[in-house]
Task: structure prediction
Amino acid sequence: MAKTMLGVEVLTGGEATAHAMRQIRPDVVPVYPITPQTPIIQTFSRFVADGKVDTVLLQVESEHSAMSAAVGAALAGGRTMTATASQGLALMVEIIYIAAGLRAPIVMAVGNRALSAPINIHGDHSDGMLARDSGAVQIFAENAQEAYDLMVMAPRVAEHPAVLLPVLVGQDGFSVTHSAENVALLRDEEVQDFVGPYEIPYPLLGERPSSQGLFAMPDAYYEIKVRQVQALEAAEQVFADVARAYALRFGRHLGAIDAYRMEDAERAIVLIGSTAGTAKDVVDELRERGEKVGLVVLRLFRPFPHKALADALGGVQRVAVLDRAAAPGSFPPLFADIRAGYSGSAELRSYVYGLGGRDTAPQDIEKVFAELQRPAHGGIRYLGLTGEDQHGES
Amino acid sequence: MIEVRWHGRGGQGAKTASHVLAVAYLKEDKSVQAFPEYGPERSGAPMLAYTRVDDRPIRRHCAVTRPDIVVVLDPSLTREVPVTSGLRQDGMLLLNVADPGEAEEVAKSYPGQVLGVKADHLAKEAGTRFPNVVLLGAYAGWVGTPSLEHMAEALVEVMGHLPAKAKDASVRAMAAGYAAGERGRADG
Result:
């Protein structure tokens, strides 16, 4: 491995992501700053200014424009990346649907953050969930190392001929974007070789000029949409293949699902993002006390890896699904997905946690595992609420 | 795992200090984490930063609520902010003081170890206005890890963008802090 890797550095998730972008050398990066994504673009634009990468950095007047420019650049035939968060992602969503429909393989780094109001700059997954049905692939990192690795993997998923869709690589705002930790970077040439050249079937600036973004009447729209849906479904296998290739080459395997100590688990938590690390610590502690508990972390959220998740849950009896986003008026997104696709015998329970950056401590995770020993609560439970609101649990 | 909480005022370098300490421990093959607590950022307002260090990979991303060590960068903060909140009873409290009596005063209400270092004064003597580098040196001298050599290397790396003169002054300030920390360890 020594040949492919540089030494370990202390980098934030945002900085590590910017390094991945520098090493991938995208042709075009249209950007608009927003916390907590800003360190990604700030670091990357410094690389551009210092001549360390020859990307065209387009500074535009809004995220809507950034995403629109990205669609144009990607379809013209340039490898295109951008980064955003929260309200910025919300403003991009209109164009992400268009990018997916036009099959523009744009890689987007997201510093996942709460949506207003009230205004809040801290981490949760509300922004990612807003883009859930856009048709983009959506991946979430647990820590800075994964944010880097998934960013290096992302172009091969996005640009695969069976996929050709935008890929959102999420990392929790602040707890990953701004947390400096041990990160092992790959060598620049290794990344470039792994990612390969940018090739799409019909680039506007290619040998065979094409028209893109045309009108589709009822006789054609439906077929085009279903092919787009199928392309997103195909991304599950492509992601698995890319993850395997990455593991073979660099020794780190980031599959769709990270099953932690699930072998003989009776109780399990399923969640997404940086709280996974805290939960792993708790699983280890409870295992030392003889409790059969485990954790399943989803890296791939869209397409949803239903089968891999069911396999990971195996013979577990009770499962707490922890969502870092709400879906007012119904069950939260991760829980709803699992309930829809899971036909195993485990009892599923829904929790919401960590909205607007509310800290989730090891004790909170312990509490969930303890509650899983008791009869079902029904409805949705809100983890980590204070004071009178606790009684608001349904 | 060692968990360190840094108290400073916006602009004093608490975030930088938390990062330098992490880089220094990385040089001793530790797993590290450094992060500030973000609120409204205003120059001069009290702020917090954290460093985690462990022999095993650090996986948790939750807040530090029970630090082992607290470092206070500004003498006026002990009167304004509950700096010992959550600090382990057998922990260590490193203070920037204008007068050694201030540390003795704090020690009356905290059972763990307390060390006061005249960081502003030592910084000025070395030709810098930042107490954080003095306290980083004092940390290494008092706690016993990381080595002064690794701390100084980490400082120079993190301050890579600054002119050589500023770096030299900071390394001198750090050495002065280290000596004060070592004396504290001998006395403690």
Chain A touches chain B through 26 residues (CB under 8 Å).
